[in-house]
Amino acid sequence: MPRATELTAIERDVLCDVARGLSNIQIAGKQFRSPETIRTHMKNIFAKLNARNRAHAVAVAYDTGIFHCRLPHLPLTQPISAGISPSSCRHGTAPTAVNRSAARRPAHGGRQ
């Protein structure tokens, strides 16, 4: 069981920035700390949350209630209404091939 309640305010701030995708160097610059200090905070976070890596620490933070998701979770699959057929869906179609040699030719037909 993670000791989520033992995270300090600074560790929560660091973990929040990790959840936003920032690197240790970016977090250090944002929080006016050294990258080594952020690395130490990350080690403490990993130990307190029993996390293996940054992504796992963020997942544990959401699972234990340290972070709260602002957007509702969408279901993994959604029913397709009866009026839509797979052939009318444009998202699943493959892109058409592009003739790259024609795209490189000048419009006036001369050589470059």
Explain what you see.
The chain is mainly alpha-helical and 112 residues long. The protein has a domain at 8-64: Arc Repressor Mutant, subunit A (Orthogonal Bundle), CATH 1.10.10.10. 45% of the residues lie in helices and 0% in strands. It contains five helices and no strands. Helix 1 (9-19) packs across helix 3, helix 2 (24-31) packs across helix 3 (35-49) and helix 3 packs across helix 4.
Question: Secondary-structure map with pairings?
Answer:
Layout: H1 9-19, H2 24-31, H3 35-49, H4 54-64, H5 100-104
Helix pairs in contact: 1-3, 1-4, 2-3, 3-4
Biased composition (Basic residues): 102-112
Protein name: Helix-turn-helix transcriptional regulator
Pfam family, one: GerE
Task: Provide key terms for this protein.
112 residues; mainly alpha; Arc Repressor Mutant, subunit A; Helix-turn-helix transcriptional regulator; DNA-binding; transcription
Quote the average pLDDT.
76
What order do the helices and strands follow?
HHHHH
Termini separation comes to 68 Å
Low-confidence stretches: 84-100
Supply Rg: 24 Å
What's the helix count? 5
At CATH's second level, what is the architecture of the domain at 8-64? Orthogonal Bundle
Question: Which structural class do you get from the secondary structure elements?
Answer: mainly alpha
Tell me, what is the CATH class of the domain at 8-64? Mainly Alpha
Kindly state the percentage of residues in helix: 40-55%
Counting DSSP E segments of at least 2 residues, the number of strands comes to 0
Shape: globular
Strand content: under 5%
Summarize the biggest pleated sheet: none
CATH topology of the domain at 8-64: Arc Repressor Mutant, subunit A
Name given to the CATH homologous superfamily of the domain at 8-64:
Winged helix-like DNA-binding domain superfamily/Winged helix DNA-binding domain
Domain HTH luxR-type: 1-65
Region (Disordered): 82-112
Protein name: Helix-turn-helix transcriptional regulator
Keywords: DNA-binding, Transcription, Transcription regulation
